[in-house]
Amino acid sequence: MNAIQQEVRSLIKQLSEYQKSYYVDSRPQVSDLEYDRLFDRLQQLEKDHPEFSYPDSPTRRVGSDLDADFPEVAHTIPVLSLDKSYSAEQLLAWIEKTESKLDEQVGIVIEEKIDGISIVLYYEDGMLRRAVTRGNGAIGNDVTDNVRTIASVPLRIPTNQTLAVRGEVYLPKASFAQLNEQLEVPFANPRNLAAGTIRRVKSSQVAKVPLQMFVYEGFWESDDQMKDHLSILSTLSSYGFRINENLAYFTQDATMAKQKLKEAKLNGFAGSFGDIASYLDTHTKRRKELAYEIDGLVAKVDELAFRELLGYTEHHPRWAMAYKFESPQAQTEVLAIDVQVGRTGRVTPVARVRPVQVAGSTISNITLHNQDYINMLELGVGDSVEISRRGDVIPAVERVIEKAEGGEGTYHMPTTCPVCSTVLVQKGAHTFCPNPNCPQQVKGRIEFFIGKDGMDIENFGPETAAVLIDRGLVTDVDDLYRLDYRKALGEQSGFGEKKIRLIEDGIQKSLKKPFRKVLVALGIPELGKKGADILVNAGLDSMEKLLNVAREQDIQRLVSIKQIGEKSAQLYIDAFNDAAMIRRIDALATLGLSMEEQQQEEAPHEQSFAGQVWCVTGSFEHFNPRTLALEEVEKRGGRTVSSVTGKTTHLLAGSGAGSKLEAAKKLGVTVIDEQTFLSLLESVVPKREERQGEFSF
Predict the structure, then answer these.
(1) Catalytic residue annotation
(2) Do the domains 84-324 and 515-590 sit in the same CATH topology, yes or no?
(3) Which DSSP string corresponds to 442-499?
(4) Where are the domains of the chain?
(5) CATH of domain 331-429
(6) Residues 280-322: pLDDT tens digits?
(7) CB atoms closer than 10 angstroms to residue 554
């Protein structure tokens, strides 16, 4: 071994020890500056001498920009689901039944059930060779390059043995809150964001997400390597893996349990079976205090010889039982997956499920967002799934409970538009129909334009629009202002003279709507009310100015505006350069719609909220809807957000405030009630305008 090779191996050993101390033991040995110096030296040596680039090098955690496919790999160990219980009585009955079957006393280990992504790490001769998703239990996807980026996963273990290690990849709550705020489409929970991350095609992107991993099972090539589960955990810990120390060990005798845990050199709670019920209750209550999400606990028979005798069913081991904190909200079956085309051309897959009651509503259709989301769930037609209503409103598929026997595997979206047969294109994570004249896009554009989030045209609903579109009388939004409604609808069933007059009045009133309303109604991706306010307040207060920015491809003008990133800026530029959009804007301008911001005579507000970040939750006497309170914050220089994170400085909490109030208290955010807020505004209390539901100051 020459000098260069020796230095490389020495740096690998040194840096690996430092990483274990930092990420596994939480005891940093050196400063970040010193670590970076050694890391950069190793990286340079590997670049200059690629023959000395080893698979266990810490530099492999940086990831690659090369596209990865995620090939399918067969598991060499059983990767099954768990049977479930929902009460201490059910769990204790299972333990009693297990002892009866064996005619022996058993030890029971209880571990936290991490709400993450199940991964199997395969080591050969002590080196990490493969990391594979659970998949269907027999075959998973190879995500090795992505898992290598997780700092708490050893790339080499201090033994030349061959073994498989099961664990759970997860994202800490704090990291999730910080990352999720930056996403175009926020994830519902840390598990889904972790799953989406682990399936990114570029491992260099995965390396930027602070994923962690706990391991909970080890399978050695030699059957007699280990005698019990406590020994497995102790050995894995000595190899440098992160094991979750929030575990417990129970036997018939508490003293014996404590001695066994001590001999294994493991921390945790020890007790008798009589202590299990109180342990479950305590752990359920402290669930929210944890830095990561758990969705239950897992009880396992400790002795491996007993596990062998108990064996497996087709779906789960008989020697383990999950204790779930709460029953699934609902379980159902995916009957079909269809795709829908939206007004922007975005093609969205929708699961048609067997109708089931969830929180008082019958759910039969669930949005699946995009192909990445489907891949993350490994979802296919015929699968049994667990579903929920997030926020008690939005139906969502949370996970696959059981894959369909003989099914076609994971669903893949079509390659052509189901409406107009145009070849679909991929833009980022989403699929689009590029044909702007696709009938479904036309219908969606017009419905959005007349709707509440668009021009909010009075007495003009989607049913009226559908009639006009189906008859070919309206093909774009400007047709709405040219149409002779008496002639178009006079002989149409359901449209009397009074109704037609109301529709005409609504159209005429909409001509007076302000520029910001027109701008939003155009339906440009990511340009809602808040986006329009940001553009106008930054001086882009006319359609001509926006069109000029687009013509000149002046992306810097947009990204220089706080709260507008490169992605949104490019979407705006592309939209305003689109020929159909330019024609639409010209037509609407000719018809008299507002194309520039009109100056409002309003006394300037003192910027008393400058530098503050406000969130609003609950119901209020003087701010209904809540957006009125948000507007007052923004007038005074504050920034408003929809969720409470570490960056939030103030929460305006009304009656009925729920999870956001709890999060604010936990994060130390200043909580303000309505009366205090009114005093901060230093303004006359708003008076209700009964007719329009607005307020004046």
Answers:
(1) 113
(2) no
(3) HHHHHHHHHSTTTT--TT--HHHHHHHHHTTS-SSGGGGGT--HHHHHTTSTT--HHH
(4) 3-62, 84-324, 331-429, 439-510, 515-590, 613-696
(5) 2.40.50.140
(6) 999 888 888 899 989 889 999 999 999 999 988 767 899 999 9
(7) 14
